[in-house]
């Protein structure tokens, strides 16, 4: 675990950042519907939910590669990407929902005046289209997308920028995500890293290889973390 301020000798954290897809919001079905719409347009079979769900965190690129497979070389990838994003933007919150426990976690963070933010690789334009559908997330002190900066995760730059925006030192910040790039970025930013085990993670994944500090199976587990919610004298 990264070094942070301490409270009675226990590591203490003052802020928390989250990935979006697969961490705060379950967006897989809307992303999968966008993929299947593109596949249908090109006369190809749809991808079932159990196949696209573990790939949802990889966004348009990962889903298009899944759906088109080896035949992708016969298509204009950029055109497929435009088709995918256009459909997704127009159907962005038809099936998307907060994960169970997320609303309670955000409410507790706000009650304890713990600043929090969102760092996603989703394009910032789509992020701003999606978030208003979920007023529970409106108190985010920072929202950064995959194109907000020159670098994106797994580069630590977006996390460092978000920490600056929520006014918390990186080593006093937690980052929560459901993909290896999330943990890699968090570790590189010297943050405490938490795997969102409720997200888009295949059942046979060896999570020990991610080198995260903590693995949580449900958002409610973060609610119980004393090193986040015990108030320090210098917050």
From TrEMBL:
The keyword Metal-binding applies. One of its GO terms (biological process) is DNA repair. One of its GO terms (molecular function) is metal ion binding. The keyword Hydrolase applies. Coiled coil: none annotated. It comes from the Bacteria. InterPro entries: HAD-like_hydrolase_sf, HAD-like_sf, HAD-SF_hydro_IA, HAD_2, HAD_sf, PGP-like_dom2. One of its GO terms (cellular component) is cytosol. Keywords: Carbohydrate metabolism, Hydrolase, Magnesium, Metal-binding. This is HAD family hydrolase.
